[in-house]
Amino acid sequence: MTKTVLIIWEHGGNLGHLSRLLPIAIALRDAQWKVIFAVADKVSAQRFLAPAGFNCIKLPRIAPKVAAAISGPLNHAEILLRMGFERVDQVRSVLDRWYALFDDIKPTAVLVDASPVALYAARSAGIPTVVIGHGFEIPPEQAPRPCFMPWVENSVARAEELELRLERALEELAKTIPARLRKNAPKSMNDLFSSDSIALCAWSELDHFDRPAGVRDASDVYFGPIWSESPGGELLSWPDGDGPKVLCYLNLRDKRYDLTWQALKLQGANVLVISPSGLPRACEAARGWGIRVVEHPVQLDPLIRDSAAIVGNGGMGLTSMSLQAGKRILLLPEHMEQAILAYRLSKQGLALATIRNKIKTVVAEKVDQLLSGEISAERIKNFSLRHGDYRPGVAVQKTVATLSKLGPR
Predict the structure, then answer these.
(1) How much is the pLDDT for 323?
(2) Predicted confidence band at 216 (pLDDT cuts at 50, 70, 90)?
(3) According to the per-residue pLDDT averaged within each range, which of 139-143, 217-221, 373-377 is highest?
(4) Which residues contact 221 (CB under 8 A, 6 or more apart)?
(5) 396: number of CA atoms within 13 Å, CB side?
(6) What are phi and psi for residue 65, nearest 5 degrees?
(7) Would you place residue 150 in the very low, low, confident or very high pLDDT band (cuts 50, 70, 90)?
(8) Domain spanning 3-228+392-406: which CATH class is it, in words?
(9) d(CA 394, CA 399)
(10) φ, ψ for residue 5 (rounded to 5)?
(11) pTM
(12) Could you say which of 3.40.640.10, 3.40.50.450, 3.40.50.2000, 2.60.260.20 is the CATH number of the domain covering 245-387?
């Protein structure tokens, strides 16, 4: 009997999620699973998946609610509330569509990536489900859970209230679904992200949060990061020029990186910028500094290994690849998830980081530190030695094994 896996990806931009999911999909197909993708951005996903021979369907979705009061969520509970769990009527309609889709596809198992409403649907439907993610995407089980911005006034009390609001929302939601599904309906965040069926795709050093001591070192919990080269990605050579080679993999949306280009050029660096999701006008602004900018997927591994230093936003894939290769890295985070990782790596002496990339003196100082080696070379070397033999296939096979153990519903 053919086993069918439904791979679901809803939230998050760029190609990081797909580059993590694609190797798993290939491994499942090689193991004779039928693989179906359900994604929010079908057009972008299909461009990435089609060269590998996969099709996808557009998933049922409730648009996330953006709060105007603060720049980012206080905790995981607020993320889930923004993603729809407090809008019971709307999320209930989406759940009905998920239940219908499950009845049509009849998946043996479901693999969920950044898709909490789909996760709720699969859990309540009793379908064997694995949740995949790196540190930020998998909330710690311990209470109280992390507050992302403890410096904000009354943040701890507000975070506790958000946890209670989420539990009340889940309770109300469970009352609306068919009676036969209520016994499996998640009543808490721990129910939703059940620890017996997660694939935590990171190294412990790159986890966004502290977890219980017995968990942080458990290889059965930390599968390891998964990255993959884009199918058909171009094999590039470095631009001609002297100076240290600096690879910048950045999401160019505006001219916020002008000070970075200026600082790198003043240091005489040979700069190559990769920005597959960048806006054309922002890419042109970078080219105005005499920098080569590539706007399509490329083979990153050879460029990383040939570079002296890396500049990135703080994505798990690029950061893992760079540190494994023993490269100095400067992180310029754009949102909360990246900022937490950048902060934790900087505290470990494994990366430089700043969110103040519009202050000329700060950017110049960070670039100078990046190129002069004023970062713990010994710690980066030890990290590279510790993880140098690791290959993403390890985490891929662990994820496949976890799905296979769940068995049919």
Answers:
(1) 97
(2) very low
(3) 139-143
(4) 198, 200, 211, 215
(5) 20
(6) -95, 125
(7) confident
(8) alpha beta
(9) 9
(10) -115, 135
(11) 0.90
(12) 3.40.50.2000
